[in-house]
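fyi for ur records
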Amino acid sequence: MPARLTLACLAALFGLAACETVEGAGEDLSNAGQTISEESQEVQDDL
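which gave:
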């Protein structure tokens, strides 16, 4: 029984770590998209 509990806890830990990683990647992509939008706006303004 303790082995199953340990495995369940490890699975939960890995699941939470994966969610944090995906959330961080989403924020990074969002920031990159914002930067690209701002740079393209500056180029359009210069034209």
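The mean pLDDT is 82. thats all i got for now
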